[in-house]
Amino acid sequence: MEASCYSYDEGWERRLRALPQCDAVELVKADADLGAYFAEKINDFIREYKLNRIDAIASHGHTVFHDPAKGFSTQIGHGGVMAALTGLPVVCDFRTVDVALGGQGAPIVPIADALFFNEYSYCLNLGGICNVTAQRNKQIVAFDVAPCNQLLNYFARQLGYDYDDKGRLARAGQLHEDVLEKLLALDYHQKIFPKSLDNNFALNVVIPVLQELSKIEDSIRTAVEYIVRALANDIARAGHLLGFDFAKSKILVTGGGAFNDFLVERISAVIPIMLVVPDNQLVKFKEALAIALMGYLRLDNRNNVLKEVTGALKDSVGGCIYNSVNSR
Question: Structure pTM?
């Protein structure tokens, strides 16, 4: 399997962060422009690895808005533009059907956890948002826990870093229990499953609380403990619901946060379950693998979003297909 990461340049980073406050015209233009940018990177990838047999592209896109209570979840990076510029079919927009059926539209990767990683009691993704799949005897629950790298990267940038490398900044900070308790008392953490988070929860709700601290390293250290304690609470709830024997359970840890040594150490210290951090390839690309599976199932017209995970009325076949003349 070939895999690569392509970073957004500074201009795209600024533009994507500003989109929740932009007008409708700019949002629609960004949708098309991001589709073209994705297509450019896909074509680069195909040339780099000399790929000559490609069935389709599966694209999650970039989430701008996610508010299932109001009936919508918006991912940009237009599939039609991607199909036109790559000459390949594109599957995208995986959340809309589930949200219309009354679901959270998230998480959507548990179908891959159930099929590919069912030897683990928990599959933990430490991405921009921390989310978990818990599974036992074909029972499954999954949910967003708390903002994760969204918080850590935000404060690391205040000190001139893209991210907190191996958790060094957090390790140098002090934990503020009063701020931690304020965060854990937020309404979201009192909710039972299913539940999911909007990207703006970090910016509008959590970060202002952490900004009460005068030292940025203290904000990062407290953010780490917030992630860990929220995770511990939700893992315990899910485990009791499914009847886990915690001594025999294992947690698969993937996502960028798996490279944050301090964060992983704190999870291991607080949660009495064996953590398994796999090879770098799986850490980086498990989410991409899950989206590829989602695309495959959509093309085969098979259910790829699970009602027991999202709270929808029924399982669904999520995803929109854009076809283009295949010139490859």
Answer: 0.91
Closest CA to 243 of 142, 139, 144, 145: 139
DSSP 19: G
Contact 210, 223 (CB under 8 A): yes
Residue pointed to by tokens 């690309």: 285
Q: How many CA atoms lie within 13 A of 268 on its CB side?
A: 13
Confidence band (pLDDT; 50, 70, 90) for 326? low
Model confidence pLDDT, tens digit, residues 266-317? 999 999 999 999 999 999 999 999 999 999 999 999 999 999 999 999 999 9
Structural contact between residues 153 and 162, judged by C-beta atoms closer than 8 angstroms: yes
Supply φ then ψ for residue 115, to 5 degrees: -90, -35
Strands of the sheet with 250-254, listed across from one edge: 139-147, 129-136, 122-126, 250-254, 274-276
Enclosing H/E stretch for 40:
helix 24-49
Over residues 247-266, the mean pLDDT reads 96
> Are the C-beta atoms of 169 and 162 separated by less than 8 Å?
no
Q: From residue 97, how far is each of 71, 109, 312, 319 by CA, in Å?
A: 10, 15, 9, 8
